[in-house]
Amino acid sequence: MPTRRSSEPTGLAPKRNTRPPNRRELIIAAAGVLFSERGYDNVAVSDVAEAVAIGPSALYRHFDGKEALLASVIEDAITRWHDQVRSIAGSRSLGETIAAAALSHRQAGVLWRREARHLNTASRKRLDTQYSRARKFVARKVAELRSDLAATEVDFIARCALAVADSISFHRLTLPEPGFTQLLAELVDTAVSVDVGAIPASRSTPTGTVSAEWSRREAILSAAAPLFVEKGFTATRLEHIAEDVGIAGPSIYNHFDTKNDILLAIMTRGHEWLRLAFARSVSGSDSSAEALRSVVQSYTELAFGSPGFFQVLLSEQNSLPEADRRHLRRLQRSYIDDWVQLIKDDHRDMADNEIRLRVQACQMLINTVSLTTASRSMPNRKARAVVLEIAQQILGSCSQTATMARLKSPQ
């Protein structure tokens, strides 16, 4: 699973008792760093005000409240990203265009994909329209390159390309330039170039959540995960979970002492699934390459079978106490280390950071599409098969460029 990037809003604050003409922009920039780093629920208006050396009352002269500030931060991120993509789209390949914009606006992905759910319905709808406009621009560029794709396939591939690019928003890995941009461009182009028509729909049955009928504890976990995703951990009450399970609120205390315990159990369960699937894949394989293919397939099936659990792993870690967050980060690093070692067995000359960037892109692609494909036009089994193929190519092409030559030249 992607690990979170870390940064601080240094260099943003003007001197106290000054009134810089770009104060609103400074507030948005500082809030963007804080929201992406800590998560919306863990940032107070006073934190943002302190980052730009003003009092909270001065911040309210620019924004009605924290939610309005978040909406402005996300709108600014999407707008800047879209403007850059449009401005350079004619001079670079599609992969290079998307990679350059993603690296220039590295917070945009995590702000949109993780934090936008905290907005009210009207703000979310407005920003969804804005993001859709940006995605459709990318889709038009995909269509120019891929005349073999149907309209629904073009849209799907555009989503995959953007998910790959957004993977860098969820971690702080880096490479010296121009290598970083070139690698990210290659990974994006790998998604754009996949031969959709040659991929049969998946026949495998995704591994889903354990049936909750025989276990009240499992029923609570299964009900809590989508609620945490939809409402956010802070806004979800135990009464909401109990209502979905069909029990009285106090009955939850027979199984969990606190809401934090439910969240930790969900995340721990998710990591247990991943480690068990990894162990089975490796033990049943005769080579590192075969093991890696099996690991990616099992990860894909888990993600498509239990998207709610994966979304909680991705979005709610900041809601836990620091000791639990450290424990989960160790689990994440250890799990990714195992993927890295499988790849290094066949590519010993490759730098660890390049491998990790590929792994993060692979996992983010699977996570993102598994969460959205049910409401999209491409059938679920076909979507799962295409995503699996892209993921395999991202990891299986470590020693050579896997993209089509036609994607390397501007159209």
The tally of strands reads: 0
- List unreliable stretches of 5+ residues: 4-11, 206-213, 398-411
Order of helices and strands: HHHHHHHHHHHHHHHHH
Quickly name the level 1 CATH class of the largest domain: Mainly Alpha
Walk me through the structure.
The protein is 64% helix and 0% strand. By secondary structure, it is mainly α. The chain has 2 domains: 23-174, Tetracycline Repressor, domain 2; 197-407, Orthogonal Bundle (Tetracycline Repressor, domain 2). The radius of gyration is 22 Å and the shape is globular. The model is unreliable at 4-11, 206-213 and 398-411 (pLDDT under 50).
What's a quick, concise take on this entry?
The protein has two domains: 152 residues, Tetracycline Repressor, domain 2 (Orthogonal Bundle), CATH 1.10.357.10; 211 residues, Tetracycline Repressor, domain 2 (Orthogonal Bundle), CATH 1.10.357.10.
Task: Detail the topology: elements first, then pairings.
Layout: H1 23-38, H2 45-51, H3 56-59, H4 66-88, H5 94-104, H6 108-115, H7 121-145, H8 151-166, H9 179-193, H10 216-231, H11 238-245, H12 259-283, H13 288-305, H14 307-315, H15 322-346, H16 352-372, H17 380-396
Helix pairs in contact: 1-2, 1-4, 4-5, 4-6, 4-7, 5-8, 5-9, 7-8, 8-9, 8-16, 10-11, 10-12, 10-14, 12-13, 12-14, 12-15, 13-15, 13-16, 13-17, 15-16, 16-17
